[in-house]
Amino acid sequence: MLHLLDDLVTFSTLRIPSSPHLLLPSRTKTLRYTARTVSYNPRMAAELTSIKLNPESHIILVISNPPTPKKEKRYITETGMERLTTTANNLQDQPLLRLPNDLARRNFKSVQRAVEREEKYVLPTLQEMSYGNLFDEQSPDQTLSTLDTMLSRMHGLKRKMQSLQEEEKKIQNQSRKRIQHLETLHKIPSLADVKYDQWSRVRLDRLLVDHMLRSGYSESAKQLASEREIEDLVDLGVFTQCQRVVESLRRGETKEALQWCGENKAALKKSQHNLEFELRLQQYIELVRSQDQMKKIEAIAHAKKYLVTNQETQNKEIMRAAGMLVFTQDTRAEPYKTLFSTDRWKYLSDLFIKTHHELLSLPSQPLLHIALSAGLSALKTPLCHSAYTSSSSNSSSTTTSVCPICSTELNDLARKMPYAHHSKSYVAGDSIVLPNGRVYSKSRLLDISRQVGSVEDGKVKDPTTGEVFLESDMKKVYIM
Q: What are the CTLH domain coordinates in residue numbering (predicted)?
């Protein structure tokens, strides 16, 4: 990344405005390159224009910068290296610890519900059996049958408790590994430490696995996590289950999604997304779609059982569902056309993903995008999304340092990012401008032209556009 940034700084281009007041003749001697706020000065302009110069070969490029803001406090170690601050990393890695905590809480709730359910059955049954034996109201065979039933339920509870205990141990082990991973960061003294590069590599692998899982590449994510030995630092099980339900919805099946809703019924009551109602509504739509009379009767019964119970919050949707009984699936009348559309399955899968991530406190977008946002904002300039540049890489240039923001992969991601705030200007000392208006370092431009090999002597090639110009067409740029 540091090499990429260095190349970007070296080969970044400036568009010279067409405003005539920025193009002034200059003295032939080299001026000191400093960036400062410039205002129009008549005396200065008269002095400049009174000297005989050749405006065809010399240009002054005036750069106006805003006042420099107050410098922020920086942490410096005894060796002079910038000390590592972990605040940003802690904010970014919150889901790393939050998810195991939520899973442990849900696991405990499952244990609590299982014990309470069996307690409600066993205690009254024991009390009833003891009274029956006391007053000879039960035969010995009935008593033995009741005891066998209770023992069977207790064995089932024991197996479930063992399974939940294993799950709890797994969650605790994950939490321990993740805490150790973050603790390593806090022990690193500076950015120059080799351990920080190692830790950053592990974090990058985590972000890549997270992005793969969210994109549906579960097998590739598992393979990468296994090769890097970071299975405990990524959420393979959670995203694999989510992807399985999403795929079933895209196939037009609601069974797995409804099963997931049943397992998380208590948590869904607090959610702003009424996922279960939408799934039941889709079942109703599929019954009505067939136009079979028996299916319509079944659809009415289904609506009474699952839809009408949500009348207080979903009355409008219920009324629309009732109106579907008199329409066919090829209708053009809205909103029934939309309800009958197969695009609703895509809507349901997206709704499930939103609900799933909300319940587990997962970010709505990949962590890799969040991590990239800071870097994209630091590099973004107005030129990256201007009408004069292409969002794709230039294929005509063989050796060129393409701006990451202008690349096809990152252009859309950076579109809503704020522009970088630069309080200072950094310009190469041997800047020249090509006839197409692009400014480069002369030495770097000549080096690139020689590396390309396809450029004749006495000519240079624009690394961005691929255009070839004579060296004599280059004009010196002076910065005031």
A: 238-295
